[in-house]
Amino acid sequence: MTSTPVKPLSPQEWEALIDDYNNGGGHLHRSVPVLELCLSSVLRKDLPLPLKLHILTFLEQHSFSLFPADSSSFSFFFRLFESLRFVVQSPTDPFSFKDQFLISTTSIFILLLNVDNNDLNNSPLNVLVELLLTIINRPNHGLDRQTRGVACECLRQLELAFPCLLSEITPHLWALCQSERTHVAQSYVLLLSTLVYNIVKLKPPDSNIISISNATTPLIPFNVPRFLIDRDEHSGGDFVWKEEISYKDLRRVIAFLLEWPPNLTPFGLLEFMTTTIPVVEELELQASLLRVQFSGLLYTYDPLLCHAFLEMYSKFLDSFDGQDLDVANRLLLMTKESQHHLVFRLLGLHWLLGFIVLLVNKDLGKKRSILEISLSFYPTLFDSLSLKALKLDLLAYCSVLSNSGDANAVKDVEGGMEVFEVKLFEDGLVAMSAFKWLPPWSTETAVVFRTFHKFLIGASPHSDTDSSSGRSVMESNVFHTLQRMLVDSTSEYQGLVSVILAFVNRLLGCHKHRWLGDKLVETLDEHLLQKLKIDYRLGSYFPLFEIIAENNKVSPIGLLEILMKFLLFLVERHGPDTGLKSWGLGSKVLSVCRTMLIHHHSSGLFLGLSHLLAFTCLHFPDLEVRDNSRFYLRMLVCIPGKKLKHILHTGEQLPGMSPSTNSNSFFSLQSPRSSYDLKKSHNIASYIHVERLMPLLVKQSWSLPLSNLGISCSKPSYLEGGIRDNEPASTEETEIGTSTSTDIITKTDETHQQQEPLRVMDSKISEMVRVLRRHFSFIPDYRHMPGLKIKILCSLRFDSEAFSHEWAVNMLPCNKVEDALPAIYATVLNFTSSAPYGSMPSYLVPFLVGQPPKNDCLLGETCNSLEIIMPAENGCGEGKNSFEAPVVIQLEPREPMPGLVDVFIETNAENGQIIRGQLHSISVGIEDMFLKAIIPEDIEGEAVPRYHLDLFNALWEACGTPSSITGRETFVLRGGKGIAAINGTRSVKLLQVPVTYLIQAVERNLTPFVVCVIGEALVDMVKAGGIMKDIVWKDKDDDDAIKTCSPTGGPLYLKYFDDDNENQNPPITRKTVAGYLDILIFLPPRFHLLFQMEVGEVSTLVHIRTDHWPCLAYVDDYLEALFLDSP
Question: Where is each AP5B1 middle domain found (predicted)?
């Protein structure tokens, strides 16, 4: 019975079928003869070439499911081979199609025949190898050289899958290698080297190889060697290799192959060395051949070649004897060459560490040489943090080596190995000294304390069971140096308390190194406590006090003394402005006392602790602290030690369990908790996304925070550039402060302020001051009223498929009307930021439908279920906005600076599960801070552009030279409580941008902020665009505000000094100034950014003035990105 011919598939149907198989839906097409369709479609001339390549890849990926498992599979193999031969012999098919067909067919043969290769004699493997041999048997043929290279690689993969498959035709392959002169000779050489490697490794029996130089078996026709077919007969014994026949010939082949490394690519050379070096070892050839041939690889700039050399070096250590230091110095030099990629330099450090370990294990006498070059391992200041970490690891390992060395082992080091060890430790941390003032969560701080740990436990690893090594570490100079460093750093920088606490807890948590942690706690008790200053900052050290109190090996006397002094301080300083400080710090003192009661004997604590608690009961200002201290004192006096510890342990609360105040069983029941899965919420950001609608021009990854600089109240008010109050403020507000860059200063006494000198101003300055006062009077003082807000528009969406899989929400196929995509309900987005953006309100999204999977609607079916959640006229591939919800992030900046906004989500799934987690952060750029200047209410219509220009000129003059008379003025803000002064600065930037591109960039990004265009030529060009409106147009540069710019007829150049000889003629050029653009930008909460662009034909000189100098750090990148964005 003849089978019905299969209907060919269209390209769209092919794409749908392939996607179904890739997504696990192959069972839907079991009735379709997919294999026959594939073989017939690749031979069709009407299908595009990309689709044919896609079909071949599909056939290769799903060969296990497409090819039958019974004996009829050989017929499909032969059909696949016939299709391949037809394509290879076709003169019209492109070579890329032929190459892919060869690769896919070879992969299918290897995958399926290698599973059950007992019947290789009847398999179509012979005809495939014969075809490949026919292709490569045309050396130096130019047209198909790429195809010959692919055929060689296919043969090499067959040889790797079926070792010694080509062993009987080795002479022919050697002859082809000698004949080939094109660039594909590398493929021939790699094929021959792989074949020789298999022959030497497996030693095939009954081989027809009598002599490699003389062929006895023809190249074509090809037959599978008998020992591969009958391999079961030889599975019990070893192969016997006829050395007297092939040994000399194999040496000749190796000598021929060793001439090829200079002509190979790095990847080819790596494969070549992988197969050649084992052959050299097996044949016991002289390793000096490899040394001469491959020693230059270490001096290349390719990581692959360096890695290959080190692999060879590790196998032939004796042959490279005497070059140890040369190799080490070369690896060290690699790590110091900054022009290399960071990955290469990191690899060099890893190699160097492994190389040193290899040398020391081989010969302990080489330790002295390693220690001498270790002085070159110090990290430099401008090394990346990863490089610094690895270099510190090297220094820690060298410190371990120096422990067992004699005193005269290293040159130029006085005092012996202990001094040398301390030198490595201290000098290595010079480039990392910034950890002291960096935040405790910084990566650099983590690297430093990781180095501390390595230096400490390096001489006493976990694998070492000798107890004497621990005592030697405790008595070493490095340990004493580390103790001194930790005490000094902690007493000076209170931010390190949490990091040092984690470091000590790590040692205390290790069974082997717990004694080191105990010793550090004892050191902190003996030396740190006496250095601490008694003030409010002492509250930061209470975590360390807790760990000292927990250690029963440390005497509590010193801790009780400092707690007593601290209580005296709190009692003396308590006042109406103290607030909750006394209560919080007093509670911390009692917490430390409770810890001592739990971990120490009452007899040792009784005298000192009873005095402290009695003083607290009598004199402490907070009632709750007095009551709690009375309870502790009564228990200390009345309850024996063991029972007291039991009571205090029982009183400890379990995490998340709050005991009921009522003894009734009803009230003691725990309240029902929400269905919240913390584990599932860790990767929530992978399928729920909040993204900006408008991407930033500058991908700002850094910001410039400034510390709050204290300004003496005795300074005149016109020297203070921030906002200050006209009315006195409390001391508490003075201590806490707000934003660092807005520089809010509070006066405590008006009588202490110096009187401003009497000034005489001309009419021009007076008019400028009037404009500025009017402008500042409309700027709100964010300390006393709502400030200016900035809105960042974003979108919220989530992927339905990943969401349903993670939270077990059913999502059925799209063709059922009663089913719909998953949704989330009552979504609340909370925003936080470490940048000074003020309080950010939450955003509520009542309802949101998930995005449909990407594989929906590939077959052109109608998705009726989407009609439930989106308009009926939207098709299945449309309506993207229906699956996104708008999100608005409102900022109230205290300082115009970029930063990141952390986004936290809390929402509900359809099955009642509560979903909480953190999403990806939203970047805030300096361009988000750009606002238009506030317009007074009485200025409308045509008067607005002139007001903006007058304000620009006044601000330009005020932000000019420090001697400007407006720099000593103070301006009252809206509300009448705050005043501000202008401390201006200026800068300049030259942009090599043609005038047309500059106008397009300004029109696209800065149009709302342009206040004036000057110059007849520039005015004509800008008016022709028709985008900028409601601004002032001037045909001549008769304004005083641009008198600082270059002359109109000269070139654009930078003046480095104000007193440059302006009578000197600038360089002669034909590039003239087209005009000027004045741009006024308001930066909340009260700052300004002014641009005056001196526009030339091929370049533009941007004069910048601002009253907030930190923003200059971001303006440079913004201008670069602004004009890079031009077409």
Answer: 247-644
Instruction: Single out the residue of 516, 479, 585, 501 nearest to residue 549, CA to CA.
Output: 501
Cα angle 353-356-358, degrees, rounded to a multiple of 5: 110
Task: From 202, 370, 192, select the one nearest 264 (Cα to Cα).
Answer: 192
| Phi, psi torsion values for 726, nearest 5 degrees | -80, -20
Distance separating alpha carbons of residues 1011 and 1004, to the nearest angstrom: 15
C-alpha to C-alpha distance for 46 and 97, rounded to whole angstroms: 14
Q: In this predicted model, which residue has the larger pLDDT, 1036 or 650? A: 1036
C-alpha distances out from residue 853 to 687, 804, 822, 878, 883, Å: 12, 11, 11, 13, 12
Axis-axis angle for helices 557-573, 581-599 (nearest 10): 160
Mean pLDDT, to the nearest integer, of 172-192? 90
Judge whether residue 1063 has pLDDT over 60: no
Cα→Cα distances 1084→787, 879, 893, 926, 1088, Å: 8, 37, 6, 11, 8
Residue length, the chain? 1127
Burial class for 46, CB neighbours closer than 10 Å (0-12, 13-18, 19+): exposed
**Rounded Cα gap, residues 908 and 910, in angstroms:** 7
Q: Is the pLDDT of residue 1079 over 90?
A: yes
Per the confidence metrics, is the pTM higher than 0.90?
Answer: no
468 has a pLDDT exceeding 60: no
CA-closest candidate to residue 968, choices 1110, 813, 768: 768
pLDDT in tens, 828-879: 999 999 999 988 999 988 778 888 887 654 333 444 433 333 333 333 334 4
1114 Cβ contact partners less than 8 Å away, ≥ 6 residues apart: 698, 700, 704, 897, 898, 925, 926
Q: Is the peptide bond before 841 cis (omega within 30 degrees of 0)?
A: no
Distance CA 520, CA 485 (A): 11
